[in-house]
TrEMBL record:
This is LytR family transcriptional regulator. Pfam families: LytR_cpsA_psr. Residues 378-402 are annotated as: Disordered. The chain crosses the membrane at residues 56-79. The keyword Membrane applies. Residues 136-293 form the Cell envelope-related transcriptional attenuator domain. Residues 378-392 have a biased composition (Low complexity). InterPro entries: LytR/CpsA/Psr_CW_biosynth, LytR_CpsA_psr. Residues 393-402 have a biased composition (Polar residues). PANTHER family: POLYISOPRENYL-TEICHOIC ACID--PEPTIDOGLYCAN TEICHOIC ACID TRANSFERASE TAGU (PTHR33392). It comes from the Bacteria.
Length: 402
């Protein structure tokens, strides 16, 4: 029995227990009512009382079943608002674009096998400005739900990592998305970084802005250089929003998006270039996570109803609901962050693909698997060459290319 079958089994048992408890409560209340009636209305027929008791109990049980059905239908309604796509849909688009990819050549290396207690979901932030068919994967992350360690982990993958793209050729990591969409990007990460990924979720720039605005903005701390840079460039696309200041403030969707795209100014942790940019992305996603935690259930339902149409995924409705239930069951209020490649595990190089990062895959993949599937050893988190970095930017990661 898989973990998700176990979750469903536990849910069924919980509903049965609730139903049994409700039945006992109804019976007790009815017994009390009947005892009172017997003292004041001794002329009532006992059979009539028994029939009335069964009728009331049956009515309440029917209402209870109806409530369960309403919850199930509501969940189904929400899931139907998400955009679903299959691998065959994406492959058809690739064939139409005339890109030659051997989709069967996808198992060149072994990957970590599927683990019922660990779920890895690829998060794709798509930059779709000049290309109306498929844009670039501006943000590449993996969200991990680990039921054994009770952790939620967000891992950034540097888009300039030089990788073997299955069935295609060597190139930058984000090239795999441009030529083969979510399925090929997922497969490329699996093959090069040796982790199993259960599916992907994709949002574009418009969706990102909407998500932040629906939450009422996010709290972000800007340096003086970041604020001045954002106010004088078009990273914040709406000129009316180019009024950010140094320090902690609430950024709206347009401002937060601009912040996550900045590369030419040092980040709050001193990093530069794409390293600073990916750290900003993790900072914003962590701020979104914090904002969600502050919302009430009713408000979250309304927000979810508005946001789901902006999401595209290849994960089934059943699996999505299972993953959400698992996240809730963890009870964690913290989001851990990680970055690939880590400090001192790459070097910069220029080749036919442009400026790339040549990754020390044996070292990186071992640390990545320890982080996602287990516990990172003390030696990888306490020295000056720390593999992990936090959403607040306190890391040992070097900037630029070594």
């Amino acid at each position: 029995m898989s973990q998700y079958d176990k979750n469903n089994f536990q849910t069924d048992n919980l509903l049965k227990e609730i139903n049994d408890n409700l039945g006992r409560q109804i019976a007790n209340e009815l017994d009390k009512e009947n005892q009172s009636e017997e003292t004041t209305m001794e002329v009532l027929d006992s059979k009539k009382k028994k029939w009335s008791k069964k009728k009331i109990a049956g009515t309440v049980a029917g209402v209870f079943v109806a409530m369960i059905l309403c919850v199930a239908l509501a969940g189904n309604y929400f899931m139907n608002r998400i955009n679903y796509e299959s691998d065959s849909d994406v492959k058809a688009k690739v064939d139409k674009d005339g890109v030659a990819i051997d989709w069967d050549a996808s198992n060149a290396n072994d990957v970590v096998p599927c683990n019922d207690k660990v779920v890895n979901i690829l998060l794709i932030g798509e930059e779709k400005i000049h290309d109306t068919t498929r844009g670039r994967s501006d943000s590449i992350m993996v969200a991990t739900i680990n039921q054994e360690t009770k952790k939620l982990i967000l891992t950034s993958f540097m888009r300039d990592c030089y990788v073997m793209i299955p069935g295609y050729k060597e190139g930058k990591l984000n090239t795999s998305y441009n030529v083969g969409g979510g399925p090929l990007l997922l497969n490329t990460i699996e093959q090069n970084f040796q982790i199993h990924i259960d599916g992907y979720v994709r949002v574009d720039f418009e969706a990102f802005e909407t998500i932040v605005d629906k939450l009422g903005g996010v709290e972000i701390e800007l340096t003086d250089n970041e604020a001045r840079y954002l106010n004088r460039t078009n990273y914040i696309s709406d000129p009316n929003n180019r009024n950010v200041v140094a320090g902690v403030q609430t950024l709206n969707g347009n401002q937060a998006l601009g912040y996550t795209r900045v590369r030419k100014v040092a980040g709050i942790n001193g990093e530069h270039d794409d390293f600073a940019r990916t750290n900003r992305q993790r900072i914003v996603l962590n701020a979104i996570f914090e904002k969600y935690k502050s919302k009430g259930l009713v408000e979250l339902v309304g927000i979810a109803n508005d946001l789901l149409p902006y999401i595209t995924t290849n994960i089934s409705k059943t699996d999505l609901l299972s993953y959400l239930a698992t996240v809730v069951s963890l009870g964690t209020t913290k989001l851990d962050t990680f970055r690939v490649p880590m400090n001192n595990c790459y070097h910069g190089e220029k080749n036919s693909a442009g400026d790339v990062l040549i990754v020390d895959y044996p070292t990186v993949n071992q640390a990545l698997q320890e982080e996602l599937y287990g516990t990172v050893s003390a030696s990888t988190t306490t020295d000056s060459n720390s593999t992990a970095d936090t959403a607040t930017g306190n890391s040992g990661v070097q900037n630029g290319s070594n």
